[in-house]
Amino acid sequence: MRLADLPWPDVASRAANGAILAVPVGATEQHGPHLPLSTDTDIALALCDRLASARPDVLVAPALAFGSSGEHAGFAGTLSIGQAATELVLLELGRSAAETFTRLLFVSAHGGNAAPVARAVARLRAESRAVEVFQPRWEGDPHAGRPETALQLALRPARVRMSQAVAGDRRPLGAVLPLLRQGGVRAVSRTGVLGDPTAATAAEGRVLLDSLAAQLVSQVEGWA
Questions:
Q1: What is the CA radius of gyration of the chain?
Q2: 202-223 vs 146-155: helix axis angle to the nearest 10?
Q3: Domain count, the chain
Q4: Which of 25, 148, 169, 195 could cross-link to 188 by cystine, CB 3.0-4.6 Å?
Q5: 22-77, pLDDT tens digit by residue?
Q6: What is the pLDDT of residues 97-126, one digit of tens each?
Q7: What are the pLDDT digits (tens) for 125-140?
Q8: What CATH number is associated with residue 155?
Q9: CA 165 to CA 145: how far, in whole Å?
Q10: Cα distance from N-terminal residue to C-terminal residue, the chain
Q11: Which residues span the domain enclosing 177?
């Protein structure tokens, strides 16, 4: 159930019965020459929708489509609001949500948001607000590679240009992290790809999506 589709009395009624507000937190940033800029946001929203399908007490907020994406500067279309602004947006959003909802869940699918999300959640918890965060993780390519390409093939195949998919820097993330911190993704990959997306399939994307959704549902059940 999408929050924005409801009139306020319906929201008030659901909140009074203990509804959880799930906020998809994504980004607008390059994902190689074959994936849309909305990839992280699409994944976060899909996971929130899966959670809402499994739990009728979940309402899905409109996705936050901007985050901390400075590491992708230099690629056309990347729009970053930086760490401080991301933290502040989530903090104020959490405070506002607490006027209606007693429980708030952030589902953040962009790795660059991890630090500001963690700081915002810590501050909200320090204010005695019930807040949880889920950040999907998977083995393999860290950015625009096989896992994310497979997920998009499962979610929005018409927006994936497999004919443009190319392998990028295939070293483990730990090996390139110092270079990424110093010069961003441009320093290690001219295409913006970290990994090799060329063999990705929708079938493996569906398996991964099912696994991530099951992890999210399990975490929320343990929390709620």
A1: 18
A2: 90
A3: 1
A4: 169
A5: 999 999 999 999 999 999 999 999 999 999 999 999 999 999 999 999 999 999 99
A6: 999 999 999 999 999 999 999 999 999 999
A7: 999 999 999 999 999 9
A8: 3.40.50.10310
A9: 9
A10: 18
A11: 3-223
